[in-house]
Amino acid sequence: MSSIALLAVGLLALLTGYQIYSRYIARRIYQLDPDFRTPAHEFEDGVDFVPTNRHVLFGHHFTSVAGAAPIVGPAIAVIWGWLPAFLWVVLGTIFAGAVHDFGTLWISTRHKANSIGTLAESIVGGRARVLFLLIIFFLLLLVNAVFAVVIANLLLRNPGAVLPVWGSLAVALVVGMLIYRTKLGILGPSLAALVILYVLIWLGQYVPFQLPDFFGFAPTAAQITAAAGDPVVAAAAARTDGVRAGWVIILFVYAFFASVLPVWLLLQPRDYVNSHQLFVALGIIFLGVLITNPTIVAPAVNTRLPDDAPSWFPLLFITIACGAISGFHGLVASGTSAKQLNVETDARYIGYGGAIGEGALALTSILATTAGFAMVVGVDGWHEHYGTWARASAGATTAFVTGVGYLAQGVGIPEPVAVIFAAVVVITFAATTMDTGVRLQRYIISELGAEYKVSIARNRWFATAVAVGSCALMALGIDRGAGGMRLWPLFGTTNQLTGALSLLVVTLFLYRLRRRIWVTAVPMAFLLVMTTWAMVLNLIRYWTDSQIVLLGVGGAVFVLEIWLVFEAVSAVRRALAARAQEAPEGASAET
Q: Tens digits of per-residue pLDDT, 217-256?
């Protein structure tokens, strides 16, 4: 299969979805109003509510949602073959993910930038708010824990990426100060910051850094067994755990301060610079495909799955996660982006357009892992890498980084720099998701505190400390961080479930407004079935494997889901009864 052909079909489909389908939704379904006063203007405070240029906000929103998940998910899912992964990434993005992101941004803007969890109370019912907030808390717990482990592993394996990753933070702070204190335009400083980032990537090959092992872990029984009794090998594995744990702690210390700083100081400039980087990265990958045209060696549909691989139905839709649709995107849209939306008509560009960009990133992951990676390791090496489900899951970022490194070399970038470049792409996007994720979790903790009259929970320092502490415990609590990818199926299931429930809220609101609901109702129903099915399978596996922590978190999310669905059914019945009592010609007013 030609990489160029797959790339062309995928991009053309995504572009068509944005140009045609999103316009239909904006005009006929959501009916965007350019004169509507957005919460960014109504509640402007200079910290969270900040009217923002649409391109700057797109940069924040895009890079907040375009984390490691659209890379890792497809990189694992190609084990079932490139065709199922490709179809779900493209069609799922157009008809589910982008509709979800657009819808949650719009409905939050129409409700004073309240989070999707808070909106559940006014649209579904009183209990729905707490249920949804608890589900979101667990989702953010998993998002931040998974991404911290992914970043730590990449820093561990790519010491040349340490300098550009942390150097870019200092550059972003300077950009934020320049833009908002001196009133300079954002384009010039952000492009200069991008150039500095690439200089740091080039320098990274000469200044590799490996974090010392601060913990001195003793080898576990599993490490001793894997080392066949060799104490040297077992000790090396324990040191790796120690270094990984050190990076996880450092990442959460950083996330703490990033969460409490004003959005204009770090979050916006960092995300805007990273949005440029993402476009450059996509351009390099696409150009590398056009120049090298590596053959896709993975089967279209893998009929020889490893014994430990689950069935692709329903796990494909869960594993790809943010590569097609993500509940986390709705949290970003209703948690931070709605507070910065300048005019309502920008919601199509930021919400639907951001999801299209996410789909393009997921498409590069499919190409990098099924073609670029194979050119480096060979056909036999590719099949060996995807020879077990465990190996495919643990090595997803390795396959992507190696594949992108190969494609970047086709553009003329030297191999050491190309590999560092690919690692920095994944790390920086995962880190921006963590920045936003911890900030969102702080909001959720504060909302839950207000619900139960715990006044200290409304303090942003306390709420952030709770968020960071719980996420760090989750990240390090499974084999000292080494088993972090065991969180992925539960993260994917909870993430897609949150997306389905968010679509449920949007659908009920559209029903109140007497608008067509099929646009959101169809993907909502599909996702509810897939996520419920997948959650049951996950819980059975956690019970069999005695994974108590995962069983507890998954079980709690499952109970909350069923309860919330029952609340939604009651809301539908109330709406039907109210509509039956209305005069046929009556029309509801939009809030």
A: 888 887 788 787 788 888 888 898 899 999 999 999 999 9
Six-digit token pair at 296?
């896709």
Q: Which helix (H) or strand (E) holds 521?
A: helix 518-544
- Report the candidate in 240, 238, 282 with the shortest Cα–Cα distance to residue 70: 282
- Total residues belonging to the chain: 591
Residues 451 and 82: beta-carbon distance below 8 Å: no
Residue 213, φ and ψ in degrees, nearest 5: -85, 105
Cis amide bond preceding 219, omega within 30: no
- CA distances to 65, 161, 163, 214 from 208, in Å: 29, 7, 7, 18
Q: Do 59 and 436 form a contact (C-beta atoms < 8 A)?
A: no
How far, in Å, CA of 563 to CA of 371, rounded?
Answer: 44
- Give how far Cα 473 sits from Cα of 142, 144, 467, 479, 481, Å: 11, 11, 10, 11, 9
pLDDT digits (tens, 9 = 90+) for 515-549: 999 999 999 999 999 999 999 999 999 999 888 88
Quote the longest CA-to-CA distance of the chain: 81
Non-local CB neighbours of 383 within 8 Å, separated by 6+ positions: none
The pTM (predicted TM-score) of the whole model is 0.86
Residue with tokens 């482990």, as numbered in its chain: 149
Burial class (CB in 10 A: 0-12, 13-18, 19+), 307: exposed
Contact 214, 242 (CB under 8 A): yes
* Helix 353-367 / helix 327-335 crossing angle, nearest 10 deg: 140
DSSP letters for 205-270: TTS------SS-PPPPHHHHHHTTT-HHHHHHHHHHHHHHHHHHHHHHHHHHHHHHS-IIIIIHHH
Q: Which residues pair with 341 in a beta bridge?
A: 52
The pLDDT tens digits for 269-316 are 777 777 788 888 889 999 999 999 998 988 899 888 888 888 888 999
Rama region for 514: left / alpha / beta (φ>0; ψ in -120 to 50; rest): left
- Tokens of residue 336, six digits: 């931070």
The candidate with the shortest Cα–Cα distance to 5, out of 457, 345, 371, 369, is 371
How far is it, in rounded angstroms, from Cα 340 to Cα 480?
38
CB 246, CB 213: distance < 8 Å: yes
Q: What is the Cα 21 distance to its own chain's centre?
A: 23
Q: What is the 3-state secondary structure (H, E, C) of 77-122?
A: HHHHCHHHHHHHHHHHHHHHHHHHHHHHHHHHHCCCCCCHHHHHHH
Domain boundaries, the chain: 3-564
Integer-rounded Cα radius of gyration of the chain = 23
Q: Which two tokens stand for residue 286?
A: 């696409």
How confident is residue 590, by pLDDT bands cut at 50, 70 and 90? very low
User: 2 - beta bridge partners?
Assistant: 295
Please give the Cα distance from 492 to 326 (Å, whole number). Answer: 8
CATH class for domain 3-564?
mainly alpha
Q: Which residue has the tokens 């129903």?
A: 525
Check if the beta carbon of residue 553 is closer than 8 Å to that of residue 143: no
